């Protein structure tokens, strides 16, 4: 230490002392700058909108994202189940429609047969009504019965 004092007291002393002072001032300024940068960095870690730290929000958002991904998977699974059910129901409706069309066709055919039978019966009734009874009513009735059985 005494050597440093002797060096400072000599002719080069004021220059060295000034250099040391500049170095010390630079170190203090650098330390102050670093402190300010760290304080600013710490302030940057807080979301000004919510007041919460970004790191905490990032963890919360990651949990929310994981939950949303699970929910989306469940939603897609439900959608597939629903689509299968709708496809099955549409198939059943198509089968019922085909069955209804078949029954309607059978009913139309039966109605046509019934109309044909009705026309035949009406013609037979008209023929019976138009027949004239002969002198022997029993013989005329017998002839009419035999005619209707043909």
Care to give the gist of this entry?
The chain has 150 residues and is mainly alpha-helical.
If you had to describe this structure to a student in words, what would you say it looks like?
With 150 residues, this protein is mostly helical. The protein folds into two domains: 1-44; 53-132. Helix content is 87%, strand content 0%. The protein is built from four helices and no strands. The longest helix is centred in the middle third of the chain and has 77 residues, at 54-130. The protein is rod-shaped, with a radius of gyration of 56 Å.
Q: What secondary-structure arrangement, pairings included, does this model have?
A:
Blueprint: H1 2-9, H2 13-44, H3 54-130, H4 137-149
Tell how many strands the DSSP assignment holds: 0
Q: What's the end-to-end separation, in Å?
A: 154 Å
Please report which band the strand proportion falls in: under 5%, 5-15%, 15-25%, 25-35%, 35-45% or over 45%.
under 5%
Integer average pLDDT: 81
**Helix segment tally:** 4
Element-by-element helix/strand order: HHHH
The rough form would be described as rod-shaped
Which structural category do the helix and sheet elements fall into?
Answer: mainly alpha
User: Which value, in Å, is the CA radius of gyration?
Assistant: 56 Å
The tally of domains stands at 2
Parts with pLDDT < 50 across at least 5 consecutive residues? none
Report the biggest beta sheet as strand number plus sense, adding barrel if it closes: none
Q: How much helicity do the residues have? A: over 70%
């Amino acid at each position: 230490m005494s050597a440093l004092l002797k060096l400072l007291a000599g002719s080069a002393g004021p220059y060295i002392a000034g250099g040391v002072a500049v170095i010390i001032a630079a170190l203090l300024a650098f330390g102050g700058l670093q402190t300010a940068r760290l304080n600013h960095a710490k302030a940057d870690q807080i979301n000004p909108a919510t007041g919460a730290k970004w790191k905490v929000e990032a963890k919360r958002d990651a949990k929310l994202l994981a939950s949303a991904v699970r929910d989306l998977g469940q939603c897609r699974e439900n959608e597939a189940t629903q689509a299968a059910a709708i496809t099955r129901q549409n198939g059943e409706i198509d089968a019922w429609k085909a069955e209804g069309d078949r029954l309607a066709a059978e009913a139309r055919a039966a109605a046509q047969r019934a109309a044909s039978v009705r026309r035949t019966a009406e013609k037979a009734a008209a023929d019976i009504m138009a027949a004239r009874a002969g002198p022997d009513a029993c013989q005329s009735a017998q002839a009419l019965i035999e005619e209707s059985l043909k």
